[in-house]
Amino acid sequence: MGAGNSVVECAPMGIQQTHKPNKARRRGRILKQARQSSIAARLQSLFQLSLRFVAVVLGFGLLGYLVFRTGPEVVWKQLQAVGWGLALIIILGGFSQFIKTCAWRQAFTCGISQLSWSRSFVAQLISDAIGQFGVAGKVVGEGTRISLLGSTVPVSSAISAGAIDGGLHGFSAVVVTVLGISATLMLGPVSVRWRVYAVLLIAGLASVVILAAVAIARRWPLMGNAIRAIGRLPRLRNWVSGKQPIIDSAEHNLLYFHREAPAAFWATLILNVIWHMLAVLEVYIILRFMGAGFTGGGAFIVEGLTKVINLVGGLNPGNFGTYEAGNMLIAKMFGVTSTAGLTLALCRRARTVFWAGVGALCMVLMKRTEVPRTVAATLDPAVEPSHYAQEQTIFESTQA
Q1: If you placed Cys at 219, which of 54, 180, 255, 335 could pair as Cys (CB 3.0 to 4.6 Å)?
Q2: pLDDT digits (tens, 9 = 90+) for 70-88
Q3: DSSP letter, residue 191
Q4: How many Å apart are CA 363 and CA 148, to the nearest integer?
Q5: How far is Cα 222 from Cα 236, in angstroms, rounded to an integer?
Q6: In percent, how much of the chain has pLDDT > 70?
Q7: Is the pTM of this model over 0.85?
Q8: CA–CA separation, 107 vs 44, rounded Å?
Q9: In degrees, to the nearest 5, what angle opens at C-alpha 372 toward C-alphas 371 and 374?
Q10: What total number of domains does the chain contain?
């Protein structure tokens, strides 16, 4: 009996001893897999960053090549011909940003009385500045615009407003592009090969417009279904599952925005159309100052074709080089010198850089004003901001 009991007592001990190494091995495997996945993610992000850096360097190289091939002196003379018209373009660019801010504010489905105009305008400037760096820049810019709103607006409403405004902006941009390409085929001297390409592009863009209109009218959740289909892939399942509710909520607001707030819907759409018409006016002013002799219809066609360049150059961060080269090709298509097309692109680039700089400066000032408030609230939440300011003034006077 004693021997039997000892055997019975030793058996569980043996099981525990063999069970502990198994647990240790499992933990080791899990840690090893986590390390490998983190290393793979870092390598992937580093590879993507390297590709973007190389694309930017190549874009700047192409831009420099175009300028030196055309002749810096010739380009400088064209810029001098624009003269004070560049200041007019910069002012017009600020007005365009104001119109875009109005369109974005109209797209909110909640009350925005606590969201000031100045904060909205600054958030729009910063988002547009970041959005110049390709598709990834637009995603980051939209996220930055939402984060700059703080607690004044719920995050879900901010995401929905961005989706509504972005959707209507893209819809109006596609319409302008289709009309511009169609007018080019009717009026411009285009070869048969390029006519075939243009017709295929028009068919594709027109299909997108029709599908978007039918989806809004029938309230089809196309985006949500597409994300669910992507989420079936093993590698993207976890990433999609965390973002699916946000995407569904944003798409729901986009599909029902027309019925729930028809006045705001049409206001957002009309303001986005006005934004595109201001871009046409910008092209017309620059070309008129250069003496190119373009009419309003010609400027509309140029802007429609420029949107095709932006679409093609979306994979190039900042669209450096490709944007200028595309404008030179458009100018040649209409019998204008390529120098005029390059000057047009450089003037519009200068306007973008100016307002991007204004947005960056505003962001720095906003961060500087928010840091003392955050520090004061962290140190003593019971102290009101006014009391904190008084205490800081007294401290500075004693130090003086």
Answers
A1: 255
A2: 888 888 888 888 888 899 9
A3: -
A4: 9
A5: 18
A6: 77
A7: no
A8: 36
A9: 65
A10: 1
